[in-house]
Amino acid sequence: TSQVDWQQKALEEEEEEENLVGPVRPDQVTRGYVMASIAAEQRLLNEALSKMEEDEEAKAPKHEGWMTMIPDSKALGFSVAQLEEMQKNRSSFSKTDKDLSGDKSAWTDTPAEKAKKEREKQLGLDGGRKRKETAAEEMETTSRAASIIEQYNATVRPKSLVEIHQEQARKKSKSSKEGDNFELGSWDRSSITETKVRDPKSVNKMIQDAQNLNSRFGGGKFHGF
């Protein structure tokens, strides 16, 4: 019976709410009326905020699309393969070249859009997905540039003198290790420390020759004190 009474009371409140026009007395306030009032206030607040944003956007200076958009690589009349081929055939890479691919929002965003992105970033709405995509794009661009430079150096750029000498040294060391297979001799102490025996005639001849050295190198008389 309690459940039936509660349902009957809810139906009576709904019927009373349908007949209400304008503000109600405190003794007539029901839960549905309170919820409806809160929803109406929230709706009015959202409408006021959206109108303020529209007014700010209307007052902000605007530029035509062609003034802020960066031309795409396709608009230049060259494909990606043609651009890579042009980079290979260059004698040197220009330091002023700009990469036209990737995020162009830094050039095209208005101050209001930049402020909105900054608020979203502070609230954590930016997320990690965008950072991961940017890191993946940067890694892909870096690897592609490295492969282009490596291919250019291999086909066009001559080797430096240092690289030529290093290559020759590597080849020489490799050939010496592979071709010159020699065996180390055994070390004999007796053969190294052995003294040569001379006959008496050769010893006397060496002494005489040593005595004659004075006559050959003496240029004058020496007077001692």
UniProtKB/TrEMBL annotation:
Pfam families linked: DUF3752 (PF12572)
Lineage top rank: taxon: Eukaryota
DUF3752 domain span: 89-218
Sequence ranges of Basic and acidic residues compositional bias: 111-123, 163-180
Span list, region Disordered: 1-25, 86-143, 163-204
InterPro entries: DUF3752, GPAM1-like
Organism name: Guillardia theta (Cryptophyte)
Protein name stated in the entry: DUF3752 domain-containing protein
